[in-house]
User: Fold these one by one.
Assistant:
Number 1:
Amino acid sequence: MSDQSSAATSPSSEARRQPLSLVVTTLNNAATLRRCLESAAFADERLLVDSGSSDDTLAIAAEFGCRVLHKPFAGYGPQKQWAIEQARHRYVLLLDADEWLPEDCQLEIQALLAGMVAGQPGLAGYRIPRRELIFWQYQHRGARLNRYLRLFDRQRFHMSASTVHAAPEVDGPVADLRYAFHHDGEPDIHTKVAKINAYSSGLVADKL
């Protein structure tokens, strides 16, 4: 009798945390993608939108069971906007292929999701500090870090219009997380130069 009573008054055993979609856009990111996907293995969906990779990017995505969609590159903002719109879950974690979550950041995000019952969303978004890899060393823990809106409710989000400085924006309250995600950047100088050239072309396009 007491067991039946406690079962009637306790939360449903079927109640579960808010599910999460990881969204990553890629183009020839085999050098960094594995670490990114490993660090977000707790995501309920791993969605990768690729714009024509010719290296091992797609093979790595297959190893991690990613749902892969293909779309020609349409600019940083439009590409990410489209990718986020394809996610299956309401909450999205947006990472670049050269970014990853250390364990403390993983646990903080999982604890946050555990506090949200599916169908009962939390805030519109959460800003996460980013630790940069600079000359082969990460910024030290006392450094002042920039924060980026990378975890958010996609039903309340839109992407800024710029093709280069595009960033998620949300309609509603946001909060800051404590632990940082890491940004490794380009694996070699040739990739870095190519990215700078693409970035410069995008700046010109924004001004036209």
Number 2:
Amino acid sequence: MKVLLATDGSAASREADWFLERLPFPEPTQLIIANVALVPALAQMRREFPQSVNEMLDQYHARAESLLVEEAARFEGINGTVETYPLAGHPADELVRFGEESHCDLIVLGARGMTPTQRFLLGSVSLKVAKHAPCSVLVTRPHQSGRLADQPLKIVICHDGSEASRQAVETMARFHWGEQVEITVLSVVTVIMHPGMAIYQKTGALWENEKRQANEALAWAVDHLRETTSHVNSEHRETESIDDEILSVIEELGADLVVLGHRGLSRIDRFFLGSTSENVLRHAPCSVWIVREKPEA
């Protein structure tokens, strides 16, 4: 598995480090650690600026190199290889470009802010990478490291029976979780909550068929995940708002990670992340993993 980890030395990126260290990868991992400098234009024109500016640029790049060396040392015990790359440009653009050119399977980056307002105003880098990346994206949030140092990760996997959500389940099933995790597979079915309409909706054959398919999808997901851990259960919810119910379950369970599958492989499909994925990404108090199947090479 090829993983691109974005780092800038901030508390948010250190949380991304911590989360990545906890993932029990199923095979040797090719970890690429990247730092993106925001001053490429100045660097290219350095002869036209005073020496003080050039010295400032030298210091900036020296700090970036030092940070990459420090990050590489942190992961030197990983089962796999570690490479570092100093990049230059807009962080989101460069991470998406580099992820695509390097054929990465996963991009990992930290999101700043834990209040509801800060979560809604998700950093432009995190949101842009989640929207445009050609691969899966894990956006970590800084709430769990102290509480979870010696506790299992609590993961919610959203599953609606679609190919995208099956891909999400299969991705999680590849990890060697063992006793390190508590997984809840969540199925949410939309119900019209207007008085009388819910009763009418639930008496039809279409409703029975939808509920049967949801239960079958849950059973498949639980069986599939039990090949990697015995700590798996399922939740079936009926609600008017799928997004709100997912966020409610995350809060109820104290989840550390929510996993969603994303439909669409084209650049246009990637831009339209999907209302549920984007709302969860903006509002969830925990880390969010958007599973996106890579396009064929």
